[in-house]
Amino acid sequence: MNYQEILENARTCMGPYCKACPVCNGKACTSQMPGPGAKGTGTVAIRNYEKWQDICVNMDTICENGKADTSFEIFGRTYKAPIFAAPIGAMKLHYGDKYDDLEYNNILVPACADAGIAAFTGDGVNAAVMQGATEAIRAKDGKGIPTVKPWDVNTLQEKLELIKASGSFAVAMDIDAAGLPFLKNLTPPAGSKTTEELAEIVKAAGVPFILKGIMTVKGALKAKEAGASAIVVSNHGGRVLDQCPATAEVLEEIVQAVGKDMKIFVDGGLRSGVDIFKALALGADAVLIGRPYVTAVYGGAAEGVATYTEKLTTELADTMTMCGAHNLSEISREMVRV
C-alpha cells in the first residue's frame, strides 16, 4: 500500500468533515468544527501549515558522504525518528463512524510502536477512553504516551492511577484543552492550572511529564518552574483560540528561553520530512503530527501508519543528506532560511 492508496481509501470512510486532502493544510475544513477544522475564522490551522512552507532549507552536499541516521533518544528510549503521533480524540464526532476512540488507539498505539515511533493517546469525558488508551499502551510494554486533560484533582488522580498501571514511559497533559467546550463549567471545576497546581501533578505522575499547549516564552518558563521534563509548542491545531500565531513563529524564541532545561517538541501543520527537518533546525527535539495519522489509520489501519511513518522518515533522511547532516545532532540553525 502506498500513501496515495491510503488517501483514496480514507476518503471512503472519513465522515462528512475531513476530506483526506492530498496535503492536510486546513483549507478544506477551515472553521468546520466539530469536525477537524479550526476555531472561529478557521485560519490558525492554515497558518500553522503555511508558516512551515515559508521556511527554506539550505542545501550543502560538500561534506563527507554517508547515510543519514534519523534515530532519536528520549527518556531512555530510542526511536527510529523524532516523530510522535499526536493525541486525537472524539473520533466518531470528528471523523465518522468507522472507529471509536478505543478502536482507534488499539490500532494506532501498536502500529506506531512497530513502526519505530510512539503515539500520544487522547482523553475524554467518557472514562472508557483513558481506560482503553492505557490498556493499549500496557499491552505494548508501555510504548505510548497517555495525554490527560486538565481535570479537577480527584479526576486527575484516578486517571494517573490508570496511567501508572500502563507502564508508560512518560505522561502528557494538553493544558490548552482548558479552552475546549466540554471542559468548561464542569462540576467539580476543570481547566486552567496554576504553576503550583501543575507542580503537584508533575510530582504525582512519577514519570517524565510533558506539558502540551505552550505558545509563549512566559508559558514555557512556567512549565519549567512546575517541573515539566518537556513541553509541546502547540496551539491545539487552532481548535481552542482563533487568530493566535503559528507554532513555527514562536518555536525558536521558546527554544532559546528553555531549550537547555527541557525537551522541546512542536506540532501544528507539519506534513513532511522536510517540515520536520525545519523544526529540528529551529531547535525542536521532536515533532507531533496529528490529523495525517488519523487519515493513515482510516485509510490503511496498521499498514497505513507504517507507510506514512516510513514516508516521513525517508523524507527527513533525504533532507538531512542534502543539507550535510549525518545525524540529528548535526542539524543546525544555519541549515534553514527563515
Describe this structure in words.
- It is built from 11 helices and 12 strands.
- The strands form 3 sheets. An 8-stranded parallel β-barrel has the order 4-5-6-7-8-9-10-11, surrounded by 7 helices. The protein has a two-stranded antiparallel ribbon with strand order 1-12. Strands 2-3 form a two-stranded antiparallel sheet.
- It is 41% helix and 13% strand.
- It has 338 residues and is of the alpha/beta class.
- The protein has a single domain, classed as TIM Barrel (Alpha-Beta Barrel), CATH 3.20.20.70.
Quickly list its features.
single chain; 338 residues; alpha/beta; TIM Barrel; 8-stranded parallel beta barrel; two-stranded antiparallel sheet; 41% helix
Q: Could you give the topology of this structure?
A:
Elements: H1 3-10, H2 43-53, E1 56-57, E2 72-74, E3 77-79, E4 83-85, H3 91-95, H4 101-114, E5 118-121, H5 127-139, E6 145-148, H6 153-166, E7 171-174, H7 195-205, E8 209-214, H8 217-226, E9 230-233, H9 247-258, E10 263-266, H10 273-281, E11 286-289, H11 291-323, E12 336-337
Parallel strand pairs: 4-5, 4-11, 5-6, 6-7, 7-8, 8-9, 9-10, 10-11
Antiparallel strand pairs: 1-12, 2-3
Helix pairs in contact: 1-11, 4-5, 4-11, 5-6, 7-8, 8-9, 10-11
